[in-house]
# Entry
Amino acid sequence: MRQSGQSRRLLIGAAIGGGLLIALIFFWIGYAARPPPDTSGLQALADRYRALGRHERGFTGQSVRAAVRRDEIGRHLSSLASRPHIAGTPGHQATADYFRDVLSGLPGFEVFTRNYSVPVGMTVGQGESLFTIVYSNGTVVESQRQEKELVKLNLTDQVPPILSFTPSGNVSGPVVFANYGKERDFEYLQQLNVTLSGAIALMRYGGVGRGKKLVNAAAYGCIGGIVYSDPADGWAVPGRLDDVYPNSWWLPPTGVQRGSAKMRQADPQTPAYPSLPFAYRDEFDEIKQQTDPPVFSPIPGYPVGYGDAMKLLGVLEGANISSYVKGGLPIDYRAGGSFAPGVDHARLVVNNRILEGVNAVNVFAEMKGDLEPDRYVLLGNHRDAWGAGAVDATSGSAVLLEIARMLGQFYSDGWRPRRSILLCSWDVEEQGITGSWEWVEDRLPQIREKVVAYINIDIAVRGNYSIRTNADPLLQEAALQALKNLPAQDGGTMFEEFKRRWLDQDYKLSVPIGSSDYSAFIQTAAVPIIDASYVADPKYSSYYPLYHSMYETLPVMESIIDPGLRAHGEVAIWGVEMLRLLSETWLLPYDEAALIANIRNRFNSATPPSQWGWPASAAKYDKYVNDTWKEFDSALTALEAESARLGSAVQQLQERIDAGSEDIDPMSVRGFNDRRMRVMQTLADPGALLRDKTLRNLVFSSQTEETEISAGFPGLQDLLAVAKKRSNETEIWKQIAQHVSALVFRMHSLRYQLQDSGL
# Structure
């Protein structure tokens, strides 16, 4: 019995072992017969990672030149300049629809809009504003209420002459001639014992902005301001005032320059925040009371032609100041304060209003990047104008649409940008750079994180001499490189043509800061910017004479400024190549050494702190600033060394890229680019520019005050100008000390950003 039980156990064990062996055999058979694992996802990821190292050129400069179509530019120019399109008018609303329709029909683009509710300055009725000269016998001589139509154009919706955002008023009194309306011009009149209180100030364009002229006039007791374009400042040719529009491009005596007199960019009701429906808005009555610094002029202002200005100058008495003024009118320039016999007084009537809740429509067209879709290159232009705007800014609008068409053509041919491209059609620029600024405030964190550069084409063509490009220091060399990449129409390269026109005359690229849609990008977001325009020969005109007048029309552009639209085509070609260069180049073409050199030059040119006029009550701030100024110098020296090291690293990496090295880590290049994208942003300080809280860039921002002291840096310059007027107020000197401290801190932050040392 015992043997029989043991046998059964052995049989059971053998059966179990055999079963396990059979199961193991079947398992191995099944494992061997399994389908291979799906590695396609991993392979695609690996392929995409390798593709990040792609750096070949997508299209050539010759193909860009071959792609441009001037007939298309002409079509858009004719459509957009066929009627005035001032912000807040029916013609203005139609331009947004036109852009949406054209851009939506192009391959490769997604079109969308962003809207903001903003105020614009308008006239009350038609021709309700004017000045009059009242004679003792009751005779009244009026200024023109609207420019005389010298050529029949059938333009409707034309806005009468206006300085928008100036208050309405009906004032009368003597007239004084205050030249450019600068503080020193009013001081000069005081030295001549001219009574300014209760007078109307006649001033010429130039020197300071429209609003600043009126604010200065009010500060010296004037009750109104009249502004005109003097021929001596490039608006016409002195001694040849019969050679004007419509026979040439020079401003006729009836031509009037309109414009905004607002002292702060963007919507003044929502400073530093976008004008969205839920935004808290300051009341206009509150804003009008702000005086330090002011946002609006406290006195009425009105623009006139130089023909009307001559009427006023012709009845003024007082000292002959022609040698001081150096004007271009065939008349004696007198200080005024009294009238010629028989003239009783002058009267200025201004009927303006602020139209609230205007729908500002920014139109965008986005072409997604193939490899780095979360990095963007922007190119923009504004649509609104002060009339038909064939120059400002419809020339740029037509060029932007042609750039979009050319990019769409290359897209259809298989080209894809490495980084995303965003074309921007801004609204309400002429009323104080509003549409673009509101969008920057709305998207500020995303812009600072994602935007490589902003390219601005406001007035694409204002002459037929040469293209002229300006940029912040990081992109000045890149702007010239785009010209080097493009063949010129008559042989050679566009750069060689540019060099003959400008560089051989010691022309240096300047930094555009505060007068177009690039303003918010450089001053608030602190991202690199470029601006370009085709301009006139500077020996004849520094701008274009018909600026913001009713005569800035399509016939002037097509028959006088740019026959055949050659210059328009050149700007479009440059714009496409600039977009290609910034969106396609693997290693971003920044020049950090040029940025540091610019800051060093500013520092070296600044008046030393010991000469700032410190009062005894600010002795502790005096000592602090003089000591900290030395630290500023040392920080710049360290920056120069660091930028040299970075420049060497950039050069070495570029050489490896050009040599086709296979061991370059694409993610390392991406990180390197991202670090360099933040360089300009280290100059931004949200609290240091006390005079205007919408501005952040301590180096590249607008100045709001006038001063003879050169401080090199805008916020410091403004504070020193205020200190000159309030030198005994200790608080202003404390603010100066704090600002110097902020500047030095930003230099240290900039050095950390240039380094590759982690935290």
The first strand starts at residue 110 and ends at 123. The longest helix spans residues 619-658.
